[in-house]
Amino acid sequence: MTDTVALRRDMAVESRVSAWVAPDGWPHRRFDWTHPDSRGRILVQGGRADIIEKYLETIAHLHAQRWSVTAFDWRGQGGSGRLSDDPHVGHAASFDPWVDDLTAFWREWRADADGPAMLLAHSMGGHLALRAMLDGGVDPDAAVLVAPMVGVRSPVGAGAGLRVARLMTRLGDPARAAWTVRGDAKSAGHRERLLTHSHDRYADEAVWYARDPSLLLGPPSWAWVLEAFVSGARLQADPRLSTLATPILMLVADADGLVDSPAAVRLAGKLPHAELVRFGPESAHEILREGDAVRLRAYALIDAFLERHA
């Protein structure tokens, strides 16, 4: 195995996996990799159905830049339990508990040490980070939002998508899966194209889940889909966006097939201290797990941004 592959698939021997318990008693799977000559700390948070392992390569890059890195699996996914009876459905009746978890974790983590404290969040994680920053519970010195889920991509548009989701939660169990995952090659290929152009990085998932199948999560519930539309609309209309003091770097993939990139671009225009960088058809949803040209460009942007605010 090459060093590059090892960085993507294996946690560093110096890192540590532990448990963090939320104020309501919910256990979360936590990751820490402290740098011996740290310039500061950064909390890295993934998106829906993500696990810590998905960002090992990014974490290794940040650590090489002398950042101490922390991450945790969101409540209800990865190694942090489940919110429905079906362990393969990503259920959430509300996003509020996730915002509360992030706020509680941030306050404890922020108080652990002095120095710069940064936040990097992808997709749904970016949505939750924005909400927590607007509420004042999370106060990073700077934040990087990668393909933030300001809104979800819907083939019928946001308005009709909201109405469909609301109807489906009323017609049956809101915790049931919003779609069925087929195990055929065509379905897998479609999912891969939505996530990344890098076949090797997409293939890393099979390695992680073969080691620990309990980490795998499938499609969202209809309740999650409804909440994504509702919370996204509320976020986009929040008047506090224009007064958010946090410096933010927002990386957006215009060809993203999962989140509403135009909504993210519009929201960035409301933030007084936001730097927006857009990627074209060369990038799918997972900008930090793309081919080298995209990923290294993103790394350079992130490094320069963090350097300016450290």
Q: What features would you describe in this structure?
A:
This protein is about 40% helix and about 15% strand. The protein is of the alpha/beta class and about 300 residues long. It has one domain: Alpha/Beta hydrolase fold, catalytic domain (Rossmann fold, 3-Layer(aba) Sandwich), CATH 3.40.50.1820. It has an 8-stranded mixed beta sheet with strand order 1-2-4-3-5-6-7-8, sandwiched between helices. The mean pLDDT is about 95.
- The percent range for helix content is 40-55%
Enumerate the spans where pLDDT stays under 50 for 5 or more consecutive residues. none
Quaternary? single chain
User: In which order are the strands of the major sheet placed?
Assistant: 1-2-4-3-5-6-7-8
| % residues in beta strands | 15-25%
* Gyration radius over CA: 18 Å
Q: Could you give the distance between the termini?
A: 35 Å
E-strand count: 8
The arrangement of helices and strands along the chain is HEEEHEHEHEHHHHEHEH
> For this structure, what is the CATH homologous superfamily?
Alpha/Beta hydrolase fold, catalytic domain
Number of structural domains? 1
Largest sheet report:
8 strands, mixed
User: What is the approximate shape?
Assistant: globular
Under CATH, the topology can be stated as Rossmann fold
Q: At CATH's second level, what is the architecture?
A: 3-Layer(aba) Sandwich
Count of DSSP helices? 10
The top level CATH class name: Alpha Beta
Structural class: alpha/beta
On the 0-100 scale, what is the average pLDDT? Answer: 96
GO molecular function, one term: hydrolase activity
Protein name: Alpha/beta hydrolase
InterPro entries: AB_hydrolase_fold, Hydrolase_4, MAG_DAG_Lipase
Domain Serine aminopeptidase S33: 38-291
